[in-house]
């Protein structure tokens, strides 16, 4: 690459080399300071929603940092050529195939700002001589800014290369549109994907943490698809480390025992499963559930191999955001969510009092018969019956008690 500024003096070069050697010992901690802010700066909801892609973005940031530090150990203060390795190229291919176009320039702008401040602190702490400090900062500022510009250009070129050579891009981009909530005619989706939508669907996300185990991921995907007796399967390569699967059939309750069996023997492969849903909307919501379960497992650092969203929805809803909590309340309470407040209050108090109507009546200053009548009516309206899952019912009622307008279409 053409050099755009004079080489540093020997003294400045030695200082830069020493600084970079030290920072190479704490690269993960450095990446953690700017990875999330730069990810948000890319302004793509589909990227933020997929935990596997988030992980790959973190790895890309780490690769970029190590490349600059290593190059400055070898040739301090010189222009650094970006390196788009096989893993980074696979990540770019995944983004292109799903129609995701991150703002890499915006991401680099944020990362560079945070990284420069950390570099400045290190330089000030290690360079006691004023002239040496000025020399180091002068040359490294040029090197960092040019590296950012060259890297953005390299990522854009990689994206163009991926767009030209990706045969599956059209189908996966369509799936991405459906999954993100874009309006889509059911018959159009069926024709383009050659997959029936007017059925019950269960969305699954299979993923690995180690890219070296991709063979195990593909074997597990094939096993899940092959063992789905009586059901049609749609498989999409979502990223280098994850696969999206939809299993469809006439019944609403699929038998996923075979999936658990596959995961028990698939080394390093994990799966998240959404709740069944019908039609195009069910295709979308079951997939969103599976993504949410995957994100929860990764967020909480769990090592579970099989996670059904129905089993962790309570944890997810109460540790994430308002939209998730709203869905949890509606799915759990059904019509009860918008029924008379007295009914909900009676049912919640009844559960909190250990299913003792007498104690509940005392707490509510009401007659026992009145409380029993309200509890019975509330349980009739609730989608999930209190005897089947009292924890979910109580949690949903508590959310409504804290945020009464959460189920409103346009809460004020």
UniProtKB/TrEMBL annotation:
It comes from the Bacteria. Pfam families: GGDEF_2 (PF17853), HTH_30 (PF13556). Residues 343-395 form the PucR C-terminal helix-turn-helix domain. Residues 191-295 form the CdaR GGDEF-like domain. InterPro entries: CdaR-like_regulators (IPR051448), CdaR_GGDEF (IPR041522), PucR_C-HTH_dom (IPR025736), PucR_C-HTH_sf (IPR042070). PANTHER family: CARBOHYDRATE DIACID REGULATOR, DNA-BINDING TRANSCRIPTIONAL ACTIVATOR ADER. Belongs to the CdaR family. This is PucR family transcriptional regulator.
């Amino acid at each position: 690459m053409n050099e755009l500024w004079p080489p540093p003096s020997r003294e400045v070069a030695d200082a830069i080399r020493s600084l970079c050697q030290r920072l190479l010992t704490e690269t993960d901690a450095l990446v953690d300071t700017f990875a999330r802010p730069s990810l948000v700066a890319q302004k793509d909801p589909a990227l933020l929603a997929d935990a596997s892609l988030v992980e790959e973005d973190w790895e890309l940031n780490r690769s970029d940092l190590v490349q600059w530090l290593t190059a400055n150990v070898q040739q301090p203060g010189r222009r650094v050529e970006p390196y788009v390795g096989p893993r980074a190229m696979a990540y770019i291919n995944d983004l292109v195939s799903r129609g995701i176009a991150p703002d890499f320039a915006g991401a680099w702008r944020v990362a560079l700002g945070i990284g420069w401040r950390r570099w400045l602190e290190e330089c000030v702490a290690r360079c006691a001589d004023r002239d040496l400090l000025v020399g180091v900062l002068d040359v490294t500022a040029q090197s960092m800014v040019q590296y950012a510009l060259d890297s953005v250009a390299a990522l854009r070129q990689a994206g163009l290369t991926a767009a030209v050579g990706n045969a599956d891009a059209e189908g996966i981009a369509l799936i991405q549109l459906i999954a993100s909530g874009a309006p889509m005619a059911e018959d159009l989706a069926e024709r383009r994907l050659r997959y029936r939508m007017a059925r019950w669907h269960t969305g699954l996300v299979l993923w690995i943490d180690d890219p070296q185990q991709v063979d195990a991921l593909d074997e597990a995907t094939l096993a899940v698809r092959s063992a789905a007796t009586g059901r049609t399967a749609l498989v999409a390569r979502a990223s280098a480390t994850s696969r999206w699967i939809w299993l469809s059939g006439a019944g609403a309750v699929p038998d996923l025992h075979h999936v658990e069996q596959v995961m028990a023997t698939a080394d390093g492969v994990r799966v998240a499963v959404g709740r069944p849903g019908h039609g195009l909307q069910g295709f979308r919501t079951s997939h969103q559930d599976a993504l949410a379960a995957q994100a929860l497992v990764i967020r909480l650092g769990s090592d579970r191999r099989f996670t059904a969203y129905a089993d962790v929805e309570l944890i997810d809803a109460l540790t994430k955001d308002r939209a998730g909590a709203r869905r949890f309340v509606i799915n759990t309470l059904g019509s009860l969510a918008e029924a008379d407040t007295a009914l909900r209050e009676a049912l919640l108090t009844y559960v909190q009092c250990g299913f003792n109507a007498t104690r509940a009546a005392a707490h509510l200053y009401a007659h026992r018969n009145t409380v029993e009548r309200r509890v019975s009516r509330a349980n009739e309206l609730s989608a999930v019956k209190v005897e089947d899952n009292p924890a979910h019912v109580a949690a949903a009622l508590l959310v409504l008690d804290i945020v009464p307008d959460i189920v409103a279409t346009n809460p004020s």
